[in-house]
Design goal:
Number of helices: 0
Structural class: mainly beta
Number of strands: 55
Largest sheet: 6 strands, antiparallel
Shape: elongated
Distance between the termini: 18 Å
Strand content: over 45%
């Protein structure tokens, strides 16, 4: 048998559900609470700081959550539930809400709404409401009908009178004029419906100041010229609206197989869906088109791109575009570009140059990437989730993206898990394609990233809680715990007390106790403190308010941070001898030991489970015996840990684990062992 050594250069390949002998050398079986980074390796995800309890767990269950960013210092999380709407800033301070009318429009559940913001306005669409025209009609009456403009009387003697100009016998060239005493001006036919019933179409939430909002219906422009033939009702009338978007300075609605775009905005007014003249078509007129297809088409999402607007239905995708790149009624065209199945609940998201969408089977999701090409060229597609088939459950109901950090994530409101896909590209080379998951401290109701800030709402047994975190903010060896928590719900206790009789310290919490999570108390680094780096697992109590209990001495003078542990876990695959692209799965291989190169890290465990036996842990301590530095958290920048195995490669499983409140960074690994070809020559 030959003594061999083989290296795992990094752990950036992410999760793969392929058989172990088909995995890439840097792929693993599972990553929980990890974050692959091309610079620092596979690191433990940052913890989340507690901001506020937003209400009881049932208050906003199945509500539709959304995010509204005003500036780098002002952003809000909002929820629509039970005919009402509420917003909080990212510190958990509730906003002042004023409502005029339109509350009935807010009745619905998580998947019934679509929210889009622009400057100080937030447009809210209820997908379940059928649109209609207003019952109000244009007042007045027609004075007379003339054959042409030449037959009109002098305007000076007909002030206020309305004439119909019939032109030919066809109704399509009729129009109406009214005298202002000086000239004849085109007008609308008396008796026709004035416009859209604004109680049935998207409403708006207007920011009136910092932390102040007003909810109201939108005033849509009325029909100003023509009649129902020459200035017809918008195409979405009589149907529900599935999606709204902005493109080419127009507001767009998707309804059935049609797309309707408003007139170009004048200021903040995107709400005119009628033509300017019944006589001539203008480039500023609305655009109203349908998708031509032999398949049933129900448009559910739209993504504006440089070539136009990509329109998604469940079985087919289209491109709304113009050869001049400016969408006008005469130039706009819709063509089919692909025939992929797309989920009608989870909307596609942009990731910079790509669009990511999903489709669902009975049990799991497939994830695809689309990259649009030049006009006339079919888009390119990549099955992003091919290596993790059956990894993402069909219960996911939301998807988000972070263009800056090149990842997308999926979650469902009934689960604690978020599934991520992150990539890293240099030029034409894709250097990292990694799947991994985060396990949040409650069922994920909402999750969004904004300039490296993560905002999330989770539901526990009793509370709906707002949490925030920071991406890419790795600590140094002297950082305080509060600068980079590696545990969740991190917050200072509201108060402390010490009982001399029982020798117990109570740390009172601003949040309710959450069953199933492991509490932790961490001493933040403080100048001159002898407790720096200390963390304890307390017991819990509720008498007098939710609190943690520490036994043994008076800890009230310690600068505590309290929260819940998060479990970082990486399950490694079975090791095989590899030679180039060849994996020798028939050889006799005994793994003697694995050496892990660890970057910036605290304490880490390596948990070995021999076949048929219980899991045993080898703990990698980052501090040398007799050496405990004060005034800094217990992390080191570089270490190498050796884990003894001495097992056949098929007789054990190995995972890297950490639930201490400090970062862990996996850089690479090297395993050593004995390899036998069983006297056969490999060729």
């Amino acid at each position: 048998m030959a003594n061999i050594t083989q290296q795992i250069p990094n752990f950036l390949g992410g999760v793969s559900t392929q058989p172990d002998d088909q995995k890439q050398v840097n792929q693993v079986n599972e990553i929980i609470n990890g974050y692959p980074d091309p610079t620092f390796g596979l690191i433990k995800r940052p913890g989340f700081s507690f901001k506020a309890n937003l209400g009881s767990a049932s208050s906003y269950a199945t509500g539709h959550w959304f995010y509204y960013r005003v500036s780098s210092t002002e952003a809000y999380v909002g929820v629509i539930k039970g005919g009402a709407i509420q917003l909080w800033n990212t510190d958990g301070v509730a906003s002042t809400m004023t409502s005029s009318t339109g509350q009935a429009y807010l009745n619905g559940n998580h998947n019934d709404f679509h929210v889009v913001s622009r400057q100080d306005q937030i447009l809210i669409l209820n997908k379940t409401v059928t649109t209609a025209m207003s019952s109000a009609v244009v007042s007045g009456s027609i004075t007379a009908t003339v054959a042409s403009i030449a037959n009109l009387p002098a305007a000076s003697g007909a002030s206020g009178q309305i004439y119909k100009v019939a032109n030919t016998s066809a109704a399509v060239d009729d129009f109406y004029v009214q005298s202002d005493g000086t000239t004849w001006n085109e007008t609308v036919k008396p008796g026709v419906k004035q416009g859209v019933d604004n109680t049935t179409v998207p409403h708006k939430l207007t920011r009136t100041g910092a932390g102040a909002f007003t909810f109201s219906p939108i005033t849509y422009d009325n029909r100003a010229v023509g009649d129902e033939t020459t200035n017809p009702d918008p195409g979405f009338i009589g149907s529900t609206i599935n999606y709204l978007f902005f493109a080419n300075n127009r507001l767009g609605f998707l309804s059935g197989d049609g797309v309707t775009l408003s007139q170009p905005a004048r200021g903040d007014n995107f709400f005119n869906f009628f033509v300017n003249s019944a006589q001539v078509q203008s480039d500023a007129d609305p655009i109203d088109l349908t998708c031509g297809s032999l398949r049933p088409v129900e448009l559910t999402a739209a993504v504006p791109v440089i070539q136009g607007v990509v329109l998604f239905s469940q079985q087919q995708q289209f491109m709304l575009f113009s050869d001049t790149s400016v969408l006008t009624p005469s130039q706009a065209v819709i063509k089919s570009i692909s025939n992929y199945e797309v989920d009608n609940v989870v909307s596609p998201v942009e990731t910079g140059t790509n669009i990511v969408f999903i489709n669902k089977t009975t049990d799991y999701c497939r994830v695809f990437g689309m990259q649009t090409q030049g006009q006339g060229a079919s888009p390119l597609f990549v099955d992003l989730g091919k290596t993790v088939t059956q990894y993402i459950p069909a219960s996911v109901s939301s998807m988000f993206s972070d263009t800056q950090n090149s990842f997308v994530g999926l979650y469902g409101q009934s689960s604690r898990k978020i599934y991520f896909y992150r990539s890293y590209t240099e030029g034409d080379q894709n250097l990292m394609r990694s799947w991994y998951s985060w396990e949040m401290p409650g069922n994920v109701q909402f999750f969004v990233t904004d300039t490296d800030t993560v905002v999330s709402v989770v539901k526990g047994d009793q509370q709906m809680t707002l949490l925030t975190s920071k991406l890419n903010a790795l600590p140094t060896s002297t950082s305080t715990v509060s600068g980079n928590p590696s545990f969740d719900f991190m917050v200072a206790p509201t108060s402390t007390s010490y009982d001399v009789t029982t020798k117990t310290t109570k740390l009172f919490l601003p949040f309710e106790l959450i069953p199933g999570l492991t509490p932790v108390c961490v001493q933040d680094a403080t100048q001159g403190s002898v407790e720096s780096g200390l963390f304890l697992t307390p017991t819990t109590g509720t008498t007098g308010g939710a609190h943690y209990i520490l036994s043994g001495k008076d800890y009230t003078s310690v600068n505590w941070k309290v929260g819940y542990k998060l479990d970082f876990s990486v399950k490694l695959p079975r090791f095989y001898y590899r030679s180039g692209d060849t994996v020798d799965f028939t050889a006799y291989l005994t793994v003697a030991r694995v050496k892990f190169s660890i970057g910036l890290s605290g304490e880490v465990e390596f948990r070995l489970t021999p076949r048929g036996q219980t899991e045993a842990a080898t703990i990698g301590h980052i501090l040398e015996a007799g050496y405990s530095p004060l005034n800094q958290v217990p992390i080191e920048e570089q270490n190498v840990f050796t884990v003894p195995i001495n097992q056949r490669n098929t007789n054990y499983s190995l995972r890297v684990f950490s639930n201490t409140p400090y970062i862990v960074s996996l850089n690479s690994a090297m395993w050593e062992g004995n390899y036998s070809t069983k006297y056969y020559r490999r060729s």
